[in-house]
Every structure is written in C-alpha cells, then in structure tokens.
Design a protein that fits this description.
Blueprint (H helix, E strand, L loop, with lengths): L2 E3 L1 E5 L7 E8 L10 H10 L20 E7 L5 E6 L12 E3 L2 H13 L12
Antiparallel strand pairs: 1-6, 2-3, 3-4, 4-5
C-alpha cells in the first residue's frame, strides 16, 4: 500500500494565515444528487420508448488517477485540497500513515507492469 502521513504541518489559507497542523485524508467523490439539473434532464430524456439516448463513453485511456489529498486545519477547521502528481509517494514517517484505497493500488500496479526500460534508439543516437 502507498502510505501518506495522517497529519502534516503546512500553511493555512483560512483565518490562521500561518503554518499549522493539518489532518490529511484522501478525497473521494460524493454521491450524485438525483435532483441536479443534468440528472433531471437525462432522466426525462431516457424515459419512455427509444432506448439509450446519450452516448456511453467506453474508450478509457488512462491507467492511473492522480491522488487528491484533503487537508483540514486543526485550529480553524479550514479545508484545502492538494493534488499529488504521482502515486509513487515516499515519506519518512511510516508509523502515522493512512492507507490509500484499492483503486489507487490497482492503478499503481497497472502502471508498474506497463513501464518499459528505456534504451537508446540505434537510428537516433547517430
């Protein structure tokens, strides 16, 4: 599993305006509302006869997802998000760490198996 510290000391953009301790969690998408405008429009269009009315996307290209860390200030409770560019995270503090979800680990394994060692090209090296 990829480990991320449960707490981090970083700058607070809220009322504090100084470096404070932040509680770190992994961002997860919330449940979709049934009454959002797009959902209502889609449900109305789908109702009745006529089958599937909108295209269903099936050409997934990416193998990994960027991790987004959600940090909450312990003093003023201000929340901010920090996207991590890579799944290969290295931290010294392994004792205070939270384990990332299974989807992140599956994408990490897929990325590791796809990596090909880089060799010099015979034509381009001239």
């Amino acid at each position: 599993m990829v480990n991320v510290p449960k707490a981090r000391r970083t700058f607070c953009d809220g009322k504090c305006r100084k470096h404070t301790n932040h509680k770190v969690t992994q961002y997860k998408k919330g449940k979709e509302s049934k009454f959002a405008q797009g959902r209502r429009r889609y449900d109305r269009k789908q109702s009745g006869f006529g089958g599937q009315t909108k295209p269903i996307f099936r050409k997934k290209a990416k193998t990994t997802k960027k991790i987004v860390l959600r940090m909450e200030c312990t003093e003023c409770k201000h929340k901010k998000q920090l996207p991590i560019k890579s799944l290969f995270l290295e931290y010294n503090n392994e004792i205070n760490s939270l384990e990332l979800d299974d989807l992140s680990m599956q994408t990490l394994r897929a990325r590791r198996t796809e990596e090909v060692p880089r060799t010099s090209h015979p034509v381009l090296s001239c």
